[in-house]
């Protein structure tokens, strides 16, 4: 957008350059033209400082469970703290602070074995007490932590310390995907009794300095149990907007960022010394249809909306062709049902609407446009709808106002970034804020019960396929295409990998700087 | 206007009195004037605090939804509102805040829970630095450019200056800033840092390169506005009878310009400069946001987006106080000039 704007202004009003140059000269003179360049960002094959740009709030805090969750929160936490395990692309686990999880026959008792010889940044040992303290904090309703949604099947009273490296979780009823739930990347562990400001984790980096909304500096933790980082320090620099972050990477002020303006990619690709990295495509922008009120309480109207949208156009124009087509079911591309890729079919959509008595449907579609391509996606849908006499009025809203009525909107946008096992509890929830489409399908909900009662991965996958097929046939969301996270980094930086599943830059342990 | 009359009347009133008692009276009048203006300032700031509070409450959306996002349940929202004290009646919330402010405590950020003063102290210093340097550049440059334009009236310099200043004045700061970033930071030359990254704990002047672009835009906008006023003042003075007489007497151009014209042309520009300073403070919000400069302007944008009332209140009050002071200064200088 910036380059487009500049190009336009440059051609239309070249005289503006004269005063700009004049002011530049004045400012240069006033500032003494002195240089502030530093050696930051440079280093040898080992050592040096990596500067990572993130988009962050002014008022972020260092607390591992802060409610303020800008991008800096996640990047900082990934450097300082660790979960029990990291989920892998193949649906498995790479154990981190745990070494394994076992369970009884009916899935009501789960035992977590913790990794021995893990040390906090102050040198003290990590143990079962720390795990219990963190779960108690998460489960305490007074703390209003979003992580409780992932583990609310637990009762704090049922968490027991067996020994220093073993914790037992006794559940009131069977819960099959326990491993999946407790390995959520946001459930991370700090030292029991430490203050949030200490950021006392076990991660590969320890805290050096934190300035809210400005920057966090961490240094290599030499007592780390795993592969020790190669760089000496990482500086996480906060920017207010993706525009600023993009400008900073082009201007060489940072070495890497995953908060990049997608529209600036053509400029970035032409910039010498910069490399572009695309993540796996796990983010889907969704259009929700509230299934308990007219017109979307009729499945024919929901299916018609899905048929109206030209998905290929949406992929190329709204998401810059970076992702892949999606097929109206949530979750990642594992355990996918055998159904054809849905395509635009305007005659069929028109017929379905006529059958439902909604031929001249007129409806508002509300969006906060808070993800790349979201606004363009709904505009494409609105344009396509006009072709069959359906009037969709797109209303763009400020995020705060948009979220205030979350769960009450009839036709609206959202996004899905979660693995299926994490998303289904919300889809079947009785809470309107979680199940914002208000879609209740008895067969789907019955399958969900079976899904969470088994711990067998093959059986889980079979059930997931059936559930996704139901979503495809009569669900309440339009999921048109995926959109990957795009990261940009300096060619001097080696060893950066996109994090699974978010695609952001979190793992700096393998990074070196030429 | 009422205050201006009061000042004038006060000064006029002391005119016929003899010298020592006139000085005493003048001092008393000025002291009373300061007290009066101070009281007016307090009332103004209180009114602003009420307006900001009401406006923030009227904004759609609430802070708990913004913090917890779309995945939060109703009981989590209610709990967070309780934790932040937002379940109290509005009047109670306002009085609590006002009570804290009167005891010198600006309260805690709703979102992070950290003291507002802690979050803002360095940013206030950074913003003040940017504004002061901008004013140091704007004032002499405006004078110089305005003087040259007046001296070379209707010639090439004057016409190109007027055309350029018209374009700059008509261009929003945001567009101007984006253009400067693209030309000098990212697309064309890449000679200056496009984002003003001042490391925490460092004074802005320790990183002069980071200041160039925001200062350039602020200076450009300020100079194009103020120098037009200076130009008009100078043209008025240069056309006056006493300057014509000085020319006839054969005085040198330098002497006429700097000895006779400058003091008279400067007088009406000084109040305008004070108002310019006030506008520069308000305008810094856009500039700081655009260049990522770590000042109170960029913090205000975030605080408003996050509905963080104590932060919004503190920043607006600071800006309003500065705005008020500069306006009062303009008022006093204008009045004193008239009475002279």
TrEMBL record, chain A:
Kindly list the GO molecular function terms attached to this UniProt entry: peptide transmembrane transporter activity
The record, for InterPro entries, names: Peptide/Ni-bd, SBP_5, SBP_5_dom
The organism of origin for this protein: Actinomadura syzygii
User: What does the record list as GO biological process?
Assistant: peptide transport
Solute-binding protein family domain boundaries: 96-410
Cellular component per GO, a single term: periplasmic space
Q: What's the protein called, per UniProt?
A: ABC transporter substrate-binding protein
The superkingdom listed in its UniProt entry is Bacteria
């Amino acid at each position: 957008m910036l380059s487009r704007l500049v190009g336009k202004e440059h051609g239309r009003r070249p005289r503006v350059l004269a005063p700009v140059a004049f002011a530049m000269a004045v400012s240069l003179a006033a500032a003494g033209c002195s240089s502030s360049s530093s050696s930051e960002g440079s280093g040898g094959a080992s050592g040096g400082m990596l500067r990572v740009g993130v988009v962050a709030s002014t008022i972020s805090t260092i607390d591992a469970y802060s409610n303020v969750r800008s991008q800096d929160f996640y990047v900082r936490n990934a450097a300082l703290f660790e979960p029990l395990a990291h989920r892998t692309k193949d649906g498995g686990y790479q154990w981190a602070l745990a070494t394994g999880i076992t369970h009884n026959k009916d899935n009501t008792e789960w035992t977590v074995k913790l990794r021995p010889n893990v040390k906090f940044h102050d040198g003290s040992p990590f143990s079962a007490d720390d795990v219990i303290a963190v779960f108690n904090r998460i489960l305490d309703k007074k703390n209003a932590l979003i992580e409780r949604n992932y583990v609310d099947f637990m009762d704090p009273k049922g968490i027991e310390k067996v020994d220093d490296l073993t914790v037992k979780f006794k559940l009131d009823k069977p819960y099959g995907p326990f491993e999946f739930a407790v390995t959520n990347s946001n459930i991370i562990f700090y030292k029991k009794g430490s203050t949030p400001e200490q950021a006392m984790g076990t991660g590969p980096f320890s805290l050096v300095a934190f300035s809210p909304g400005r920057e966090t500096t961490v240094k290599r933790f030499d007592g780390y149990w795993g592969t020790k980082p190669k760089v000496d320090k990482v500086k996480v620099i906060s920017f207010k907007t993706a525009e600023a972050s993009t400008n900073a990477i082009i201007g060489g002020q940072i070495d890497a960022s995953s908060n990049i303006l997608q529209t600036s990619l053509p400029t970035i690709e032409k910039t010498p010394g910069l490399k572009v990295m695309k993540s796996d495509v796990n983010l889907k922008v969704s259009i929700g249809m509230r299934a308990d009120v007219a017109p979307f309480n009729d499945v024919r109207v929901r299916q018609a909306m899905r048929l109206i949208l030209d998905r290929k156009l949406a992929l190329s124009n709204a998401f810059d062709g970076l992702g892949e087509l999606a097929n109206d079911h949530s979750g990642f591309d594992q355990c996918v049902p055998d159904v054809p890729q849905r395509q635009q079919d305007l005659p069929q959509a028109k017929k379905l609407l006529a059958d439902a008595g909604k031929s001249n449907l007129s409806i508002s579609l509300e969006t906060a446009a808070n993800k790349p391509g979201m606004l363009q996606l709904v505009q494409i849908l609105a344009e396509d709808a006009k072709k069959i006499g359906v009037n969709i009025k797109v209303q763009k809203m400020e995020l705060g106002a948009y979220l205030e009525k979350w769960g009450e909107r009839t036709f609206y946008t959202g996004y899905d970034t979660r693995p299926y096992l994490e998303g289904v509890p919300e889809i079947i929830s009785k809470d309107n804020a979680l199940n914002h489409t208000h879609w209740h399908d008895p067969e789907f909900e019955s399958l969900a019960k079976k899904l969470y009662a088994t711990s067998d991965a093959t059986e889980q996958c079979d059930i997931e396929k059936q559930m996704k097929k139901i979503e495809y046939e009569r669900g309440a969301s339009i999921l048109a295409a995926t959109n990957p996270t795009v990261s940009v980094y300096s060619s001097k930086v080696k060893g950066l990998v996109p994090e699974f599943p978010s695609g952001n830059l979190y793992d700096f342990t393998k990074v070196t700087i030429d | 206007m009422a205050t201006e009359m009061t000042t004038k009347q006060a000064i006029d009133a002391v005119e016929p009195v003899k010298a020592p008692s006139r000085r005493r009276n003048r001092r008393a009048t000025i002291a009373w004037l300061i007290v009066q203006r101070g009281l007016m300032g307090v009332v103004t700031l209180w009114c602003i605090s009420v307006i900001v509070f009401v406006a923030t409450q009227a904004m759609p959306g609430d802070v708990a939804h913004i913090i917890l996002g779309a995945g939060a349940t109703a009981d989590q929202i209610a709990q967070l509102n309780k934790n932040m004290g937002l379940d109290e009646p509005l009047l109670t919330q306002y009085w609590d805040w006002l009570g804290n402010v009167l005891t010198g405590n600006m309260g805690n950020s709703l979102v992070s829970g950290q003291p507002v003063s802690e979050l803002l102290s360095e940013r206030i210093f950074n913003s003040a630095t940017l504004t002061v340097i901008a004013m140091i550049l704007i004032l002499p440059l405006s004078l110089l450019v305005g003087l040259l334009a007046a001296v070379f009236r209707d010639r090439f310099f004057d016409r190109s200056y007027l055309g350029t200043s018209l374009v700059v004045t008509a261009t929003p700061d945001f567009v101007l800033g984006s253009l400067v970033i693209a030309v000098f930071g990212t697309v064309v030359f890449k000679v200056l840092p496009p984002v003003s990254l001042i490391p925490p704990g460092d004074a802005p002047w320790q990183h002069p390169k980071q200041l160039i672009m925001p200062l350039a835009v602020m200076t450009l906008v300020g100079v194009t506005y103020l120098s037009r006023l200076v130009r008009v003042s100078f043209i008025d003075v240069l056309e006056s009878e006493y300057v014509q007489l000085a020319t006839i007497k054969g005085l040198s151009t330098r002497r006429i310009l700097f000895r006779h014209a400058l003091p008279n042309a400067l007088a009406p520009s000084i109040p305008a400069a004070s108002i310019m300073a006030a506008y520069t403070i308000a305008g810094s919000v856009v500039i700081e946001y655009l260049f990522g400069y770590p000042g109170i302007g960029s913090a205000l944008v975030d605080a408003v987006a996050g509905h963080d009332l104590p932060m919004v209140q503190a920043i607006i009050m600071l800006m309003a106080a500065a705005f008020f002071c500069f306006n009062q200064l303009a008022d006093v200088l204008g009045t004193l000039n008239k009475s002279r």
